Predict the structure.
Amino acid sequence: MLVSVFLTSAVSPVWVDCLGQKVDEVFPEAVQIRRDLHRIPEICYQEKKTSQYIVGYLDALGLKVETGIAGTGIKAVLEGMKPEPVVAIRADMDALPIQENTGLPFASEHPGVMHACGHDIHMANVLIAAKMLSEARDRLPGTVVFIFQPCEEGARGDKASGARVLIQSGILSHPEVQAIVGLHNMPDFPVGTVALRPGALMANVDWLDIHIRGRSSHGAYPHQGVDAIYASCSAVMQFQSLISRLIDPQEPAVLTIGTIHGGVRKNVLADDVRMEGTVRTFSFTTRNTIKKGIDDILRGLESSHGVKVSWRFIEGSRFVKNDIRLATRALSLFQRVLGESRVIVSDPVTVGEDFADYSHQIPALFFFLGSGGSGKLHSAEFMPDEEALRFGPMLLAVTAVDFLRLESENH
């Protein structure tokens, strides 16, 4: 058996051969699971059919399953030879409000909703990893907790995203989880590759909401008013200096203004402008530097342009922080399993992931699974290559076991 070889010996060519054989055996089931879930996409906190499907699969494996966490969240516990150590593997469940345009025979059956970010791939990977590990529970040196999380894509309004709600609900307790592992498919990397890095991997995701108020006048007499558009243009130009002059050039950071709305007609000086944007950073220090810089610029507009400004800096998800020890071990382990050329030390990426909340709570490992295919993430044409399912379950399973073995040996 694949996992039993891993549990009783060091990583070796023999073990890798057995791993490949097991992966081939479970691959058709992984594909079927992915397709079943792809047909029934559901958006944030509405993942009822998805949850029901997952619970049925986990029950059949004989795991201890807890349902209804934060509405649709699931926690399944696989006890091995002893109760500790404990490691968790997490998958996100929600889909996006996008009308699918792939033409696949297993396309979404829910109009206007699609798994356009590959969470169906993530769930299939974790379910098959659960199967592989459950078949070796009598040799498993600890406990594995499988977490199926709602609402990774973000809730509307002020409601927290799924990771934060699950943590607040005690998902990491009873048993006490000591480390957590997750992945995200990445179409920019070919199938059969993985990418990760120690430290900051994905960005803080924050939002800007800015309101600039001037005084209207006839467009032919601008001196009689206070031009909110002119002041807004000045702000946007100055914002870019925060990145180029206040932040270390080797520290990634992005400030983007995505919307500007103002004015009522072409010959009236605008008295009201609203802007929205996003800030992406990889440390709280850089985040705070940019936040203060924005405030300084906007306060300066009031004195230099005569406008009145109100604004909000809305903190979203934190940066995904890979534990140095876990990530270093994973790089070595993945190189042995896949080959050195297939393991990429990733640059930090400026998109976000609410897995970050786990990573600031306990030691965490998050990696990108090459999924190739066609289309881009969050597009109606997104079609990852299902061959990625040959690799994800294997990598999740061996990472979990590696942690359990290491912790067992150290204690």
Q: What stands out?
A: Confidence is low (pLDDT under 50) at residues 1-16. The chain has two domains: 2-202+319-410, 204-315. Residues 168 and 311 are 29 Å apart (CA to CA).
